[in-house]
Specification:
Chain A has 312 residues and is mainly alpha-helical. Chain A contains 15 helices and two strands. In chain B, helix 3 runs antiparallel to helix 9, helix 4 crosses helix 6 and helix 6 packs antiparallel against helix 9. Chain B has two domains: 55 residues, no CATH class; 173 residues, MetI-like (MetI-like fold), CATH 1.10.3720.10. The chains are: A mainly alpha (312), B mainly alpha (277).
């Protein structure tokens, strides 16, 4: 009996003899994974490698000859004040995004959680989320007119309360901050909803415990609720961090990185070099540098926050 | 919160109204201006004031210029194709990652998830060169590859999590009937994943509906451009006609806002799918 079964198994699956590891699942694994892996290899992995390779050439993207220049593009990058300015601007966007969006998002979430039962607060929530529905391009164009020096909303409001209007996007001192304000306007609702969901998921026991201990609202949020949702806050910070480093659309539409590179970001500078200026080699160098910066910051944040999580 | 704590309620309400003004004023400006006459803004009146002679002229001009519906059609075509492809490919891959143990399961999954962090701008130049090489440059379909590839990691991540929650007992029935893994996927896992797929469909549709960079770089001819670029072009075309631009912006935002008002919780859930831990 026993031999009969093993013989049967051997005749049913002759392949398992020839290819180690091959079983009834293997065709499914290959067939189901291959399309995704090929697409990602062609459009994500290969382009990253190609960017690093192109950074070793001087090339306009059109002519058949590429001139190999070694590390010349990289030396140029390190000495390029505009690149460093863009890098610094990216860091400013990161830091201000987190410092403004996180507390504001949390305050709004707390307000909506407190008032959630009332109709007008539900209406507030509906409207607050509107910015997330518009494309960055549309938001950028809309705010270009809102910031307009002569008939923009901001300046009309300022003059109506007796203040002086500014050329928000035309002044190198102000342009970057004006754009960051729009970024915060656009993304705060995202963090608001994220925090609201986390606050709502706090257990009744924790709330009851706080109430029995006589904690007031302020103490409840600062000592109990916010510490309890710190995992969500950590996620929010990482999302904001990585998102801010990738920023392009809004800045491109509103200022194209100007005036005088005052609001230049790494991504806009890369675009300018590669496409309007046909300097594919240098553009690829900036792209590769952007990749390195994002990876280093992402990995550092992941390992730092993980250590922090285990300590707590 | 209850009404016994009236000062607290008032404080909340005040803060709520404050943010309502901040969040709502740009939309108010956009919609109101869209109904204004071409020179009304220059005439020195307040930008907040109601239109002197509210008219649909701007809308009429934009809608009858012929190009708007072409852009809209382009957007609908590329976004729906890409979303369907993303859902098919990611559900197939997620099934393997969630259910089939094999040696490369975890490393491959980790590799795909690493794609979540990649800034797409890094790939812009090589993808542009590739697109030109394979003759897709300046065609709507040039967008399909990048659109699908860049949204696979998050979709696979979410669907894998989702499929892991499906009880294994559900599959046993199919196995006893003699079905292989593909049949199990088709008969059991896929139908049970519908809620996850719906969330992902919304998430990807919103992202791609608003996508700008790839469309900007890969398509130069106005005939083939999707809606976000149309807005960009109208801005040049109507540079001095701000009310017309505001009408375009309103029109372009309208589809999503209508969907949002019809199914608010679903849309919020879909958009928030991007917040993965």
């Amino acid at each position: 009996m026993r031999t009969a079964v093993s013989e049967e198994a051997a005749t049913i699956r002759p392949r398992s003899r020839r290819l180690p590891g091959w079983n009834e699942y293997t065709p499914t694994i290959i067939l189901f994974l291959l399309p995704s892996i090929i697409l990602m290899a062609v459009f994500v992995v290969w382009p990253i490698i190609a960017s690093f390779e192109l950074s070793l050439y001087k090339w306009n993207g059109i002519s058949p000859d590429r001139t190999p220049v070694g590390l010349e593009n990289w030396f140029r990058l390190f000495q390029d004040p505009i690149f460093w300015r863009a890098f610094g601007n990216n860091l400013t966007v990161v830091v201000l995004s987190i410092l403004i969006q996180m507390p504001l998002g949390m305050l709004l979430a707390i307000m909506l959680e407190r008032g959630g039962r009332y109709f007008h607060f539900r209406l507030f929530k509906t409207v607050y989320f509107f910015p997330m529905l518009m494309s960055s391009v549309a938001i950028g164009i809309l705010f270009k007119y809102i910031y307009d020096p002569s008939f923009g909303v901001v300046n009309q409001f300022l003059t109506s309360i007796g203040l002086k209007g500014q050329s928000w996007l035309g002044d190198p001192q102000l342009a970057l901050y004006a754009v960051i304000a729009v970024i915060c306007w656009q993304y705060t609702p995202f963090y608001m909803i994220l925090f609201l969901a986390a606050l709502n998921s706090i257990s009744e026991e924790a709330r009851d415990a706080a109430r029995i201990d006589g904690a007031n609202d302020f103490q409840y949020y600062t000592r109990i609720a916010i510490p309890l949702v710190r995992g969500t806050v950590r996620t929010a910070v990482i999302l904001s961090l990585i998102g801010s480093l990738k920023y392009f659309d809004l800045i491109w539409v509103m200022t194209e990185g100007g005036p005088n590179n005052a609001s230049e970001l790494m991504a806009t500078y890369m675009y300018k070099k590669a496409f309007p200026s046909f300097d594919m080699g240098y553009g690829s160098t900036i792209a590769s540098a952007l990749f390195i910066v994002v990876m280093v910051i992402a990995l550092t944040t992941f390992s730092l926050t993980r250590r922090y999580e285990t300590e707590v | 919160m209850n009404l016994k704590n009236l000062p607290g309620h008032l404080l909340l309400l005040l803060f709520g109204l404050f943010w309502l003004v901040i969040a709502g004023t740009p939309f108010y400006f956009m919609v109101i201006t869209g109904f204004k006459g071409r020179f009304e803004l220059f005439s020195g009146g307040s930008v907040f004031s109601f239109p002197q002679n509210p008219s649909l002229d701007n809308y009429q001009e934009v809608l009858t210029s012929g190009t708007f519906f072409r852009y809209l059609g382009n957007s609908l075509l590329i976004v729906s194709t890409a979303v369907i492809l993303i859902l098919i490919l990611s559900s197939m891959a997620s099934y393997v990652f969630a259910r089939i143990p094999f040696r490369l399961n975890r490393p491959l999954f980790a590799l795909i998830i690493a794609g979540l962090v990649i800034p797409l701008h890094v790939t812009l130049i090589p993808v542009y060169l590739l697109t030109r090489q394979i003759g897709l440059y300046n065609s709507l379909w040039a967008l399909l590859g990048p659109y699908v590839a860049f949204n696979l990691p998050l979709s696979i991540f979410i669907l894998t999590e989702f499929m892991r929650q499906i009880p294994r007992e559900m599959e046993e029935a199919a196995r006893i009937d003699g079905g292989g893994p593909m049949l199990t996927f088709w008969r059991i896992i896929l139908p049970l994943s519908t809620p996850g797929l719906a969330t992902l469909a919304i998430y990807n549709a919103v992202i791609l509906w608003n996508e700008f960079v790839f469309a900007f770089v890969l398509i130069t001819s106005p005939d083939h451009r999707p809606l976000p670029l149309a807005i960009w072009e109208y801005q040049g075309e109507y540079a001095m006609n701000i009310p017309a631009i505001m009408a375009v912006l309103t029109l372009s935002a309208l589809p999503l806002i209508v969907v949002y008002i019809l199914g608010q919780e679903r849309v919020i859930k879909g958009i928030m799918a991007g917040a993965v831990k």
